[in-house]
Specification:
3-stranded antiparallel beta sheet, 47% helix, 896 residues, flat, alpha+beta, 14 strands
């Protein structure tokens, strides 16, 4: 239990709660002044506690055995009998307890926002007449305001009269209609409004209680209760009670000078305030002493809770106004080293926990007994409490705190209205003969014992059969032989003896029974699963036998296990959740200052009804989704509905969109896509325009570049044209010069031909062979001098003298200019050489065929058939070349 250690302050503390609530919380433990305590009942209460302690002794022994079994410890007397044999302990019990702890804890306290409880209005909320009349008045006022607003709206719609005047005031018949009272609203409308307000108040109350549970660390305390119930069979949760807490706040205060006068400045100063909160606590069974004659909590006449307090904790009680300060301080002064009694279970717990004597020392602690239960009116009257005569035989529920010597330090009657027992019990397996239940340790004790015994036998048998056992006759061994020296290839030397003495060393074979013993262990292991109803595959062990070998079979088995788990959750809901939350609801109805959260509510437990079913449904939905993940079945499944159902089972509905949200998002996505497409189209058009502008710009730049290149090319072409024209002029000049030279040469040749008509046919042949043809048949040269030229019988057609020739261009023939130049050069050479001339002054031929030559140009061939024919060019005697510029003297005429 937690106790506040607040100290009262002299100054008034502004609390967020009204004074009447704080005073009510203070009076919760002090309905009577501390001077009028029931001192005469102290000795009766101590005797009552001692009897409860004795009656609980057998149950304590069972709890100690359960704890040893959970921790893997043997009973002291059993462990003593084992001697040097195996002492192994297979802790199957711990596995089962931990499995159930985690399983039930996960279902009662899911990770999401879901709770295992709910607060809802009663089917017909109980509302006082005054509250109902307030709601009726609100409805009538709202209706009247609506009628007035409608009348004003109609007047505004009517507007001014046709003549411009304002509408007339309501007549005498209409005015009473506005002034008369609105009809009373129907009862159904009032009931609906009341139900709506109560539902809203219930939601607010649920939020407040949820916050209080978090602040009181309810989940952590409840998990301890679950563990105690699964191990020992019973778990105890205490609450809700009133606890005054102290917190520090800050406020502005004026700054004072040395004379305690305000200086006009302020500062933030801390102050303390006390406020009531719900109190929740886990009660270990070792300090819980109920009425052992009862089998249920409702049948109990009393319940004691034993507190071992330190001096500071006991002194904190003295600071609370509901406790007798003087008696507590006197007890502290009379027992400075503590006042407590070491009980048998505390000694065994100390030894079981392997604590040292110092760690288990309780010196300096003080025992305080807290009693909850009924006291008869006559007993109260005997001890000075005023009780009406007609109620003397009535039992009154009260809370009493007393010291070990019977001194009462606090006594109050029913601290919270509507709440009697502040204790709530959770059972794993309720014992019909006792107020306590039976846990997993007790249920599977025989199976655990047999598993341990068989396992020890396996280890002992394995140890015995792991090596040979020898029987040694020491008298037959030779001197110096050590029979304890056993190793491989060991040779024993023995003394000489008669034939009947037998061997000195004999091997004793011990039979091995490991396989048989292991089958026994497996049998009791399976039996433990059946007895505890918690099979091994619940822990995640990959079982392959029977139905657990397949996914569908394992799912069915898990569903069967959930039935047992559901019973446990139902027991917790009925024994703890509902009564505890009902007490917390009454606490808030009395102490919470918020009127908006108060109303006629009921507390409902949802653990067994929804949490287990939700988990089973979640698993079934997952399996169904996997089975339909194929094209054949998928077309018949509404995947969105299936996804929503799976999300609801997993408490993830906020992550799955509804159909309206999907539709809105689809429409939004379509609009967004259209907008995006329009933007993309505009961007494409803009890009296209920009591309066109860029292309035009590049084309213009390219055109400018080409124009510049054309201008340069034109300049180059102009220069080339000029150069060509200059070349043409040069060619023309050269042609004219050549022609002049040709004419000059022709004139010279003509002069020669005129003076010697016999060479005219040779000249015609030369011109013809050079590519010329006759275009003028006027035999001018033949008419000038001499007889006509005879045709050579070896030629087809010799031209007449004086024929004109024009050049017929050929690629390999010499032009006429070159021939004329050759003729001129040949004539000049002959003149330079002093060749003879005829009587007209014309040079004579120097051909080797003429007898007039002093020395022929070329040697006469021996064969006359090789003589040059008329008109054939004479080859060079050195090079053998024939043609122009061969260096020969021209003798073109042979015997014509």
């Amino acid at each position: 239990m937690t106790y506040d250690r607040a100290t009262p302050t002299d100054e008034a503390i502004p609390a967020p709660y009204p004074k009447e609530y704080v005073a009510s919380a203070e009076r919760a433990f002090s309905d009577k002044p501390t001077e009028q305590l029931m001192d005469g009942l102290g000795s009766n209460f101590i005797a009552e506690f001692q009897k409860a302690e004795m009656d609980r002794q057998p149950t304590e022994d069972r709890w100690l055995t359960d704890l040893r079994q959970y921790k893997g410890k043997y009973e002291p007397e059993e462990e003593t009998k084992m001697g040097n044999r195996s002492k192994s302990f297979v802790r199957k019990t711990r596995v089962k307890v931990k499995t159930v702890d985690s399983r039930v804890g996960d279902l009662l306290f899911p990770a999401g926002n879901d709770k295992n409880w709910n607060i809802e209005p009663t089917p017909v909320p109980n509302v006082s007449k005054d509250d109902r009349q307030v709601i009726v008045d609100q409805l009538m006022q709202a209706a009247q305001q609506m009628m007035q607003a409608q009348a004003q709206a109609q007047a505004q719609q009517a507007g001014p009269a046709p003549d411009g005047s304002q509408p007339a005031a309501p007549g005498p018949q209409a005015r009473p209609m506005q002034q008369q009272n609105v009809a009373r609203p129907p009862d159904k409308l009032v009931d609906d409004l009341i139900m709506a307000q109560v539902k809203e108040a219930a939601r607010e109350m649920s939020k407040v209680i949820d916050d209080q549970l978090v602040e009181a660390r309810y989940k952590q305390q409840a998990l301890l209760v679950l563990h105690s119930g699964h191990l020992y069979g019973t778990g105890v949760l205490k609450g809700p009670l009133v606890e005054m807490r102290v917190r520090t706040r800050f406020r502005r205060q004026p700054v004072l000078d040395a004379e305690k006068q305000p200086t006009g400045r302020t500062k933030w100063a801390p102050y303390s305030e006390r406020y009531p909160v719900p109190f929740v606590d886990y009660v270990p069974l070792w300090r819980f002493y109920p009425d052992m004659s009862a089998t249920t909590l409702d049948q109990c006449q009393f319940i004691y809770e034993l507190h071992n307090m330190t001096p500071s904790q006991l002194y904190a009680l003295a600071e609370r106004s509901s406790f007798n300060r003087k008696r507590i301080l006197d007890h502290l002064l009379a027992n400075p080293d503590g006042c407590t009694t070491r009980r048998d279970h505390e000694v065994q717990l100390q030894a079981l926990g392997e604590r040292t004597s110092k760690q288990g020392d309780i010196t300096g602690q003080y025992e305080v007994l807290e009693r909850w239960g009924y006291v008869k009116g006559c007993k109260l009257k005997e001890n000075g409490v005023e009780v009406p005569p007609d109620r003397e035989q009535e039992s009154f529920f009260c809370n009493v705190w007393l010291l070990p010597d019977g001194t009462i330090i606090k006594a109050v009657l029913q601290p919270i209205d509507g709440v009697t027992w502040p204790y709530h019990l959770y059972y794993f397996d309720k014992d019909e003969t006792s107020i306590f239940g039976e846990g997993l340790s007790s249920i599977m004790r025989d199976d655990q014992t047999m598993i341990n015994a068989t396992t020890r036998m396996i280890l002992d048998n394995a140890a015995i059969t792991s090596g040979p056992m020898l029987e040694v006759v020491a008298d037959l061994l030779a001197a110096g032989e050590d029979p304890n020296d056993i190793r491989a290839w060991k040779v024993f030397l023995r003394k000489k003896a008669d034939a009947n003495s037998g061997p000195a060393v004999k091997v004793i074979e011990v039979p091995n029974h490991l396989e048989d013993l292991q089958r026994i262990v497996n049998q009791f292991d399976k039996n433990a699963d059946e007895v505890s109803a918690i099979p091994r595959y619940v822990t995640g062990e990959n079982a392959t036998d029977g139905a657990a070998g397949t996914s569908s079979g394992l799912s069915m088995l898990m569903g069967a296990v959930n039935i047992v788990i559901k019973d446990l959750i139902t027991g917790y809901d009925e024994g703890v959740t509902v009564p505890f939350l009902q007490g917390l609801y009454h606490w808030n109805m009395k102490f919470n200052p918020k009127d908006s959260i108060k109303g006629d509510f009921d507390v409902y437990a949802r653990g067994s009804a929804s949490l287990v079913a939700k988990e089973v449904r979640s698993r079934q939905l997952n399996e169904f989704a996997q089975l339909t993940m194929n094209p054949e079945d998928g077309k018949f499944i509404k995947r969105h509905k299936l996804m929503q159902a799976r999300a609801e089972a997993l408490e993830l509905t906020d992550v799955v969109m509804t159909e309206d949200e999907v539709k809105a998002e689809s429409e939004g996505e379509a609009a967004q896509r259209q907008q995006q497409m329009a933007m993309e189209m505009q961007a494409a058009q803009l890009a296209e325009q920009q591309a066109k502008v860029g292309k035009l710009t590049s084309d213009a730049a390219l055109a400018n570049k080409r124009a510049e290149e054309s201008a340069v090319q034109a300049q180059v072409l102009t220069a080339k044209v000029k150069e060509t024209l200059a070349n043409i002029d040069q060619i023309v000049a050269n042609t004219v010069s050549t022609r002049v030279e040709a004419v000059f040469a022709a004139l010279q040749a003509g002069g020669v031909a005129t003076s010697r008509p016999t060479i005219a046919p040779a000249g015609d042949e030369i011109l013809r062979s050079s590519g010329f043809k006759d275009i003028n048949g006027d035999p001018a040269i033949a008419s000038l001098n001499g007889p006509p030229v005879q045709e050579d019988p070896g030629t087809n057609a010799l031209m007449n003298r004086g024929q004109r020739f024009e050049v017929e261009p050929r690629g390999d023939d010499a032009p006429a200019g070159d021939l004329a130049e050759a003729a001129m050069l040949a004539q000049q050479q002959e003149e330079a050489n002093g060749q003879p001339q005829d009587e007209q002054g014309m040079p004579l031929p120097t051909d080797g065929a003429d007898g007039g030559d002093v020395q022929p140009d070329v040697p006469a061939p021996a064969n006359t058939d090789e003589l040059p024919s008329p008109g054939q060019m004479t080859p060079d005697p050195q090079t053998g070349m024939v043609g122009r510029r061969s260096g020969m003297n021209t003798d073109d005429i042979e015997n014509a």
